[in-house]
Write a structure and sequence with these properties.
Blueprint: H1 2-8, H2 19-34, E1 38-39, H3 40-47, H4 51-63, E2 67-69, E3 75-78, H5 81-92, H6 94-110, E4 113-120, E5 124-131, E6 146-148, H7 152-161, H8 166-174, H9 184-197, E7 200-203, E8 210-218, E9 224-233, H10 239-263
Antiparallel strand pairs: 1-3, 2-3, 4-5, 4-9, 5-6, 7-8, 8-9
Helix pairs in contact: 2-4, 3-4, 6-10, 7-9
């Protein structure tokens, strides 16, 4: 564990922001969330962007085949070029294929929604694999969904293993949205517990009435790269069952970590 934490403590190179690129990604995410085609004015207003700047970026995205525009309605939506990019990411990343059979088994045997996420730096986590339970409970998540890095049970993993100082963690924590927000002092105790136990359990904080269990998956360099997550109604996933599930997830995560290291 110390080796893992030491590996994570090394800060990466400082990345300078490129406004045009940031705005382009903001447009793509907005179009991806909305589903319905949107007008130029709606997009620029939603993102607080100057209309002419928004138009120039949209034209570039259309030219690259990532966005399309209906000639009649002048509304924009994602184009099939996004599928090519997504397929390339999935095919080049071994984690989804390795994790999917594990998630399917856990979902079937424990009747939970099982999720495999990638930790993308210190800002977000992205769902790469998913297996839904047959219980009358549906978590609003799909492959490609993004969440703040410190939210829920997985966020406690990030806080435990990431190289962020206390001030930065507190700043990010205050910006999170919870159904039942935990007190930061109690949350910090949970984070310290993660370092000892190697797993995290969120009981109703993130989503009221829902328990989320998460365990880390490390890459070949001992850094937190992915997580296995299970979610179910709290009255179904009682404390003893959640802890037993966490132990099972840990075993699967250790196997995945070894497989990823071997592939690397």
């Amino acid at each position: 564990m110390n080796e893992i934490q030491e590996g994570l403590a090394k800060p990466g190179p400082r990345i300078r922001e490129v406004p045009a690129v940031t705005r382009a990604f903001a447009i793509l995410r907005l179009l991806g969330r909305g589903g319905d085609p949107m007008t130029l004015k709606t997009i620029s207003d939603e993102l607080g962007m100057v209309t002419s700047t928004c138009l120039h970026i949209l034209r570039a995205l259309v030219g690259e085949g990532l966005v399309k525009v209906d000639a009649g309605s002048k509304r924009y939506s994602l184009d099939v070029g996004m599928l090519t990019l997504a397929r390339s990411v999935i095919e080049s990343n071994p984690f989804p294929a390795l994790a999917q059979p594990v998630l399917d088994r856990l979902s079937r045997d424990a009747n939970v929604t099982a999720i495999g996420v990638e930790i993308t730096g210190q800002d977000h986590m992205v769902v790469l694999a998913l297996s839904r339970s047959h219980a009358p409970f549906r978590l609003h998540v799909d492959v490609g969904s993004r969440f703040p890095a410190l939210i829920s049970a997985t966020g406690r993993l990030v806080a435990a293993y990431a190289a962020m100082d206390d001030a930065e963690i507190e700043r990010r924590f205050k910006a999170l949205r919870w159904d039942q927000p935990p007190d930061i002092a109690a949350w910090r105790k949970d984070v310290e517990s993660v370092k000892k136990k190697g797993y995290s359990i969120d009981r109703g904080n993130y989503i009221d009435g829902v328990t989320v269990v998460a365990v880390p998956v490390f890459n070949a360099h001992g850094r937190l790269s992915y997580a296995l997550v299970a979610a179910a109604l709290s009255n179904q996933l009682v404390a003893a069952k959640a802890q037993a599930l966490a132990k099972e997830l840990q075993q699967e995560a250790q196997t995945l970590s070894a497989l990823l290291a071997a592939r690397a």
